[in-house]
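User: Structure please.
Assistant: Input sequence and predicted structure:
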Amino acid sequence: MKNVVYNTDLCVVGGGLAGLSAAVAAARHGIKVVLMQDRPVLGGNASSEIRMWVCGAQGKYDREAGILEELILENYYRNPNVSFSIWDSVLYGTAKAEENLTLLLNCTCIDAKTDGDRILAVKGWQLTNETKIEVKAKIFADCSGDSILAPLTGAEYMLGREAKYEYNESLGQDKADSKTMGQSCLIQAREYTTKQEYIPPKWAYTFDEDSEVMKKRWHTLEGCQNFWWMEIGGAGDILHDTEKNRDELLKIAFGVWDHVKNHGDHGADNWALDWVGFLPGKRESRRYRGKYIMHQSDVENAVKFDDEIAYGGWPMDDHHPEGIYYEGSGCVQIKLDKAFGIPFRSIVAERIENLGFAGRNISVTHTALSATRVMGTCAMLGQALGTAAALAVQSGCKLCDVDVKKLQQELLYDDCYLPSVEREVSELTKRAKTNAAVLQNGKDRELSDTSNNQYIGEKNKEIYYEYDEPVSVKRLRLVLNSNLERTVHNMPSMYRLENDDYRMPKTLLKAFEIKVHTKGGEDITIYKTDANFARVIKIDVNMEIDRIVVIPTQTWGDDKVRIFSLDVC
């Protein structure tokens, strides 16, 4: 048996999309990071082990970007057959590409060391290597979903549903309880050209034509169907009944598919059960008590916070604790008029000074959680927390004392949209003479049907920035149009014969070249690609130049070239 000790700036516990985004963001901002993940793959509920597609803000112009969009675009590029194992590899490769990031897979966090109001270290057990791990860090980020560091450190947390009077929530309970939303083992089916037979296991439940359960739940194969409503556990102990719930969910899953195939006509003759999840996906468990607790009014009224560092836009989507066995609807959805901001105070601990958190475990009431819990939102929260941790380490301040204005601008520069905050444009960008002035406005997406924030031009037409005299340029930043208005998910729920939605956005620029004219009178190509799949490209320059030229030559299918921003720093 081995013992390994790591000394680092930031320790991230949990490798779902929130934890991955936090770790990658912090590493890219220059601090050392250890990411401790208890599973063999990254992605959490989005991984091949659970296979929930990434949901997020539903407003037409509110799709999340940042690291999440980077991951999804690489997946479209590398994974035309939409294999979940390839998706896993995209997440894995993104983490491994960061020199400042140490990835510990199959490592379960089992203990923590504290000194008063500070965490000193966390301990883990890496089953595959029979190794005891200790990670000492300046800051800790709990992105585990279950808030594992709360019981290990004494950090304050909440569990269950609040009473209406506690936060004046009309959607709260008459009396507070410990009930939560439940767990699901999802299934995926594949369509064939010929009839497919199905023989259920003997231990599966039988739901015949007269089954009350099946009468209450949508179970055709139309649209985005992954049978999410096969849900249980919220009325019990969501933290400690997972193994028992898994056994019940498997009986339900194989029985539901038996009903679809063998009990009535559901248009499933040519469909076969392709995959069944053996790891239940959770929607809710512990939530940290942070310096601010978001509640129903904050979400539905889109309250503006001065310390906004992320946003959401999923409906208030509350699943009944009894899940599949509830006689009414499986969930109640209340759609929102617009995206809502999430404050920095809701991702930092109330008492533990070097603890932050991101994901479904942030400081919100149960009602607010119903809108903040989805993975698109969680990824944005993770990127915000990782960036904040880097700023705290570099400035030597407490996590809660980070300069929020600077944090917001770093996030915007890294393509994280904040509905209530505008990105500041550099002086070098504003000073440039150009034939594409819209690229200088600091807007990196369309915000309405009439906003017109992008350059739209012809292929092979030069876009230029010019200066009256040479200027010292450190970096260029180019933001392209990856069609954030698209409604396609990152991965499919079912494998249909025609499954062509998961492709590179046609609006994205595929081939282009960037040239500069130097102080010495040379024309230099500083960047050229014929297979671009990124929305944001950052190019180190470190030269004195007086002209920048972008030459777009090919898109992924659009007739026009579409670019949002060209920034000079």
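The chain has a mean pLDDT of 97.
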